[in-house]
Amino acid sequence: MPPSRGRFATRAGVILASAGSAIGLGNIWRFPTELGSCGGAAFLLVYLLFVFALALPVMVSEFVIGRTGKANTVDAFRRLAPRTAWFVVGYTGVLGGLMVLSFYSVVSAWTLRYTCDTLLLRLGLGHSTGDYAALFQSFVASPFRPLLYLLLFLLATHLIVARGVGPGIERFSRFMMPMLLVIIVVLVGYSLTMPGASEGLHFLFRPDFSRLTPSVVLSAMGQAFFSLSVGIGCLLTYASYFDSRVPLVRSAMGVCLLDTMVAILSGLIIFPAVFSAGIRPDAGPGLVFITLPRVFDSLFASLPLVGYVFTSLFYLLLLLAALTSSISMHEIATAFVCERFSLTRRVGASAVTLLCLVLGAACSLSFGEWSGVRIFGLGFFDLFDHLTAKFIMPLGGLAITVFVGWRMKSAVVLRQLGFKGRTPGHGAQGRAPGLGLRLLMILIRWVAPIGVAVVFLNQLLS
Ligand code: PHE
Questions:
Q1: Whose CA is nearest to atom 7 of ligand 1?
Q2: Strand partners, 378
Q3: Taking the model in full, what pTM does it have?
Q4: pLDDT band at 274 (very low <50, low <70, confident <90, very high)
Q5: Whose CA is nearest to atom 6 of ligand 1?
């Protein structure tokens, strides 16, 4: 262990860094894609239920383990449960984090390319053929260009992470997150005024429960875990840098609310736009990359300058959101290798970046040269996406809540959650926990583990 670990300096920094991790392509690319292919409002309702009943308790649990264990995800479990096999949950997290970062960087690389092309006036506004499906397909299938952008994106992630927790991650998030929110709100304002926007709103808010199959429910659970970055020790690692005054429950609630708000807002950007242009909402991963440039084109045909600003802002927003998330995934493995093998941050981060570059290249190539390579019928990209969001993250979350709910001492957990001594003037000593805290403990001990198990069984038995 290096003698001193990094720290987040301010409370706002803590929330912003965690929210920066949670808010990303998961909200703006994956959420509309999943919602679009899972039928709309009914998916949204189940998703919301899972965010607050399952993913929130996992987030609080990760915060508790991280701040108590004060170490990377493997060593935190080792310290809190020595001579047991719980550290395996930590390894699953490191592995899951590497897998998420690998396929996530591929979508980020596409975003980087669209950002550059839009800014340089090579995309949209009559500067491209207008056949965005073909453009997207030929780009993702080409062997070298996506890899170049992948390299650039991973390099950017690497540089921020290598600078370390205080100076790198926190300052970056403090600056980016508020900017992101402003851009999103402006974009929603634009989108809602498009002709036919109300159809998009119906799709988003009027549920059709006949669409709720077990696999849609599993997808909603996967999306809830993915979007909140929980189940693989990402927020556990961040929480190991929190100081003892950070209010864990309030921070977790803040992150969940912010993340959910951004997901819904990005639905409000995308679906009115999609319906306004008469495009199918179940276009899959291309929804953002194929349909939106076309939407922007037709929408801003007579307002090229507004169109340029709107489109550039959108991709820039997506890119920044991706970066604040990718640094948090990178940090899981970086913290682990640095602390385990006593490496400097630069060396540790380089090892992680190199590994992700290789895995990310495999994911990227699965859209082209390696499209024939299939494992369980899926290419690398889809395999990594499904394995992490639908299996590793929920199962990790199950283990994490069981650990906090049943294995850790409740006095320790309750103290971390702010019970006892936080309001010394009010005689908190010896009092029973309040209703809110008791409810949270029920979520951690019962609702989250049983909920995850039921969704899996439901899928298995269907
Ligand atoms: N939550 C991030 C997003 O919505 C993705 C992520 C997953 C980040 C896992 C960290 C860990 O984009």
A1: 229
A2: 375
A3: 0.94
A4: confident
A5: 229
Tell me, what DSSP letter sits at residue 283?
-
> Using one digit for the tens of pLDDT, what is the confidence trace for 375-392?
999 999 999 999 999 999
Q: Where are the alpha helices (DSSP H) in 341-409?
A: 345-365, 380-386, 393-402
Ligand 1 pocket, mutate which of 25, 56, 99, 104 (most atoms under 8 A from CB): 104
Q: What is the CA(325)–ligand 1 centre distance, in A? A: 5
Higher pLDDT, 430 or 336: 336
For residue 232, give both structure tokens: 């693989």
Which residue's CA is the closest to the ligand 1 atom numbered 10? Answer: 229
What's the residue count for the chain?
A: 462
- Residue with CA closest to ligand 1 atom 11: 229
Both tokens of residue 90?
């930590």
**Residue 373 backbone zone (phi > 0: left; psi -120 to 50: alpha; other: beta):** beta
392 and 423 in contact (C-beta within 8 Å)? no
Rounded to whole angstroms, the Cα distance separating 452 from 221 reads: 8
Q: Which amino acid is at 25?
A: L
CB neighbour burial string for 386-401, b if at least 16 within 10 angstroms, e if fewer = bbbbbebbbbbbbbbb
pLDDT in tens, 166-222: 666 777 777 777 777 887 888 888 888 888 889 999 999 999 999 999 999 999 999
Best-predicted range by mean pLDDT among 121-135, 196-210, 216-230, 314-328?
216-230
Residue 443, CB half-sphere, CA atoms under 13 Å: how many? 21
Closest listed residue to residue 341, CA positions, set 79, 2, 90:
2
* 446 CA to centre of ligand 1 in angstroms: 25
pLDDT at 148 over 80: yes
| Ligand 1 within 6 A of CB of 329 | yes
Any atom of ligand 1 within 6 Å of the Cβ of 266: no
Amino acid at 141: A
- Say yes or no: CB of residue 22 within 6 Å of ligand 1: yes
How many CA atoms are closer than 13 Å to the CA of 85, on its beta-carbon side?
2
CB of 27 within 6 A of ligand 1: the answer is: yes
Residue 49 CB burial class (10 angstroms; 0-12, 13-18, ≥19): middle
**Under 8 Å between Cβ of 255 and 19:** yes
